[in-house]
Design brief:
alpha/beta, globular, 42% helix, single chain, 17% strand, 7-stranded mixed beta sheet, Spore Coat Polysaccharide Biosynthesis Protein SpsA, Chain A, 9 helices
């Protein structure tokens, strides 16, 4: 069984090397999608042995995941995982995802909401609750952590999931696609490693509003 990690990255030279080092022993291949970085993200990732696929310009998280899916298919991955490049996810939890797929899941979401929420900033909790509600209201898919970037997919799942959005709305879109295509979704409990650096990443209020608007458009255009 070939396990491939997909790490979308934009200007992550401070931490990308450490993330790759911590991930390496749990997977067979690491794919870093350098999403138009202006720093040394791609150079560092190559130096640590990752396959680097580069966007010439910053296209957004959704586009980076779509590129990563295509690269994972080329690598003939049996399981593809997505991890954030900011160090928020613990690669030591990868076996939980593999185990869930071994039990029949086709898409596995790592849920922060199934563990203790101590240390999770209020605005992150609020964004998660809102994202869960929007995902359920628009697409009829119920999960506890729709905005989690830590996920695993079977080979068949990444072939079936059709990513059309380019940016942060991709998290809800993936769940919508899995639900609509009849893929079996499971969740596993994960912890989130919050640092000043990782907390500086992600959506702010106004980006969240834009994300919501794009999800509504995605729903209407079905």
């Amino acid at each position: 069984m070939k396990i491939v990690a997909i790490i979308p990255a934009y200007n992550e030279e401070r931490v990308i090397g450490e993330v790759i080092d911590r991930t390496r022993s749990f997977v067979d291949r690491i794919i870093v999608v350098d999403d138009g970085s202006s720093d040394r993200t791609g150079e560092i990732a190559r130096g640590r042995g990752a396959r680097v696929v580069t966007h010439c310009v910053n296209r957004g998280l959704g586009a980076a995941i779509g590129t990563g899916f295509a690269a994972a298919v080329q690598e003939q991955a049996d399981i593809a995982l997505t991890l954030d490049a900011d160090g928020q996810h613990d690669p030591a939890e990868i076996p939980l995802f593999v185990e869930a797929i071994g039990k029949g899941a086709e898409v596995v979401i790592g849920s922060r909401m199934l563990t203790q929420l101590k240390g999770m900033p209020f605005h992150r909790k609020l964004a998660t609750f809102v994202g869960n509600f929007v995902t359920l209201a628009l697409f009829g898919a119920r999960v506890t952590d729709s905005q989690s970037g830590y996920r695993a997919f079977t080979r068949e799942a990444i072939r079936k999931i059709d990513i059309k959005t380019n940016r942060m709305e991709v998290s809800s879109e993936i769940i919508h696609e899995a639900h609509a295509k009849g893929l079996k979704i499971a969740e596993v409990p994960i912890k989130a490693i919050y640092t000043d650096y990782s907390l500086s990443k992600g959506q702010n209020f106004f980006v969240g509003l834009k994300t919501l608007a794009k999800l509504v458009v995605r729903r209407i255009s079905k």
